[in-house]
Design brief:
- This protein has one domain: Rossmann fold.
- The protein has six helices and five strands; from the N terminus they run H-E-H-E-H-E-H-E-H-H-E.
- Helix 3 links the parallel strand 2 and strand 3.
- The two termini are about 20 Å apart.
């Protein structure tokens, strides 16, 4: 599917946002490729005891304290939405609890009839990568929607 074909669809672009520099680069890359004023939903997915995102600087949290994690996830998503607005999107934010994380991303994209899911691959390798698995790979293999995976080298 080309960028113009994605642009002609009506649902929002869903950004799976974890607060990392790589996620910011994914938003910027999608903004350059799509080149339109798309609606966007910046989604931060968290799960207890393994939050799955990098909270904004200066935010301390205890992962077993659900209200703190939820608040940090909402703040992280809001930071991502601000970044998406800077990249030219009409963005809003959302934070949800889901396990596994990939499933939450796919379900939200389906609920909002997303025209595109954008996420970044951290390309972890070794035991950590094998144990944790790749959220990007899981989203791409389980979603019937168009998925754009960005990498640091993009």
């Amino acid at each position: 599917m080309t960028a113009s074909e994605v642009s002609s669809e009506t649902g929002p672009v869903v950004f799976a946002y974890d607060g990392s520099e790589l996620a910011d680069l994914g938003i910027d890359k999608a903004g350059r490729l799509l080149g339109d004023k798309s609606d966007a939903l910046v989604l931060c997915v968290w799960q207890p005891f393994d939050v799955g995102f990098v909270p904004p600087k200066g935010t301390n949290l205890n992962a077993d304290q659900t209200p703190e994690v939820k608040k940090a996830a909402e703040l992280t998503a809001a930071v991502g939405a601000s970044r998406a607005r800077e990249a030219g999107f009409h963005a809003r934010s959302m934070a949800i609890e889901a396990a596994p994380i990939w499933k939450g991303i796919v379900e939200v994209a389906d609920q909002h009839d997303a025209r595109l899911i954008v996420l970044s691959s951290h390309s972890r390798s070794g035991l950590t990568g094998a144990m944790a698995g790749s959220v990007a790979r899981a989203v791409a293999s389980h979603s019937l929607r168009t998925v754009m995976i960005t990498h640091r080298s993009d």
